[in-house]
Amino acid sequence: MTLDELISVADGASVELTVDAIERIAESRRVLDEAIARGEAIYGVTTSVGHARDERLPLADLRAWQPVLVEMHVGAMGPPLPAQRIRAGMAARLNGFARGGAGVSVAVAESLAALLNHRIHPLIPRDGSVGAGDLGQLALVARVLLGRGDVEMDGRQLSAAEALQAADLAPVTLEPKDALALMSSNALSVGYGALLVRRLDRLLTLADLIVATSMQAVHANPSVVESAVASARGSKGQEITSERIRRALSGGSQADAATGLSVQDPLSFRVVPQVHGACRDVLMAAADAVVAELNAASDNPLVDVASRRVLSNGNFHPMNVALAAESLRVALGHVGLLSERRMGHLWDTAVTSLGTPGADATGPPLADGAPPAFAGLGLRYPAAARYTRLRHLAQPVTLDVPPLDLAIEDHASNAAEALTMTEQAAGIVEDLLVVELLIAVTLLGPVVPDRLGTGTRQLVAALHEELGRIPTGTLPGDVHRRVTELLRKRFAGSS
């Protein structure tokens, strides 16, 4: 499964188990049943779990044990996850079933697919995983298959039993290992990671365009994005960033004229290709990590069809995704740092050349409130406060989980929290970039300059149009929100 395919399901597309996938699931189930029949000790199937892992279960009780195991693991709190993230996690788990290592019943896999296709989404709180399998949250998915709990369907909250009945679906009977197959997985974190990869790809695309606009606002030297510079370094990310900025500047007077330009600009302009490029390199590595995890057999125990064995293991541990999220936050911190430094240069130039609103004779009067075109100047200090939070978010979090369950579970990846913090960091970087853009547009003036490039001209014209719709006196934060919405709709498409 590709990231695009997973995201398509997260966005609402239907799913279908192929004939081959169903056969892989069925064969995996046959291997598991053979091992049960041989009387083997199989974690979570013929034994209990966690610190009670060596306690054998009576064979007659294995089916009755399934709902008990689900209820044992239900545990999550906090605000509800959006349906998109829940669908991404459910699709990731279904793809894991299709790999054939889960030993899950075909009926359970088909029922999970049916939930997706009928848009039945379990209500899952945000906090519940320490990154050693998303058990507490995925248990809520298992409860829905049993007809328990609450769901969202067609924009309404209702009981799982009501939703299943409305969709003409019946609760499933969980066979031995079905409960563990549904829960012992990092699928929610993997799905979240996929959605974050898409968001960050779009954010970096927007960042390059905003940088190009800032460069033209201060007449920065475009030599830093020349192809010869990028190719000399051999970084794929740098080449992508440089090409995007060149494309945004193309057709403008600044893109091909060095007359009047400084031989070198401040580093926050000059090293954008290297910093944004490095962030994109880290993002591409993160995408690879998420794809690998998405298509891995991450079950414990793992049903190995080739050897017809059932093996205890730690494949549910998404350390690669967690570390990718950690790296991304540091990389995003540098992207945000450069934006904050550039907006400082832009602000200084703007207030020197245009005046400060209400503070001096050259600035616009504030009797009726600040003009929307000057909103960015009023957000310089809030942006500085946001940047301090970004720095704190860059701190590692994957080393913070204490030993759990009588120290049997004495390590965890904390992937879910690492991903949550990465999303928060992305939000702050977006906020900083929007403030930077607002100040750059203020500096460029009330009329779109003819010297702008093709890409920057389109962006600045759209900003002028949007700002023209906003009444004078609108709070700077509200201007920021409206501009952010505009950028998301029109300028943050996939690369």
TrEMBL record:
SUPFAM superfamilies: L-aspartase-like. It comes from the Bacteria. CDD domains: PAL-HAL. GO terms for molecular function: ammonia-lyase activity. Keywords: Lyase. InterPro entries: Aromatic_Lyase, Fumarase/histidase_N, L-Aspartase-like. This is Aromatic amino acid lyase.
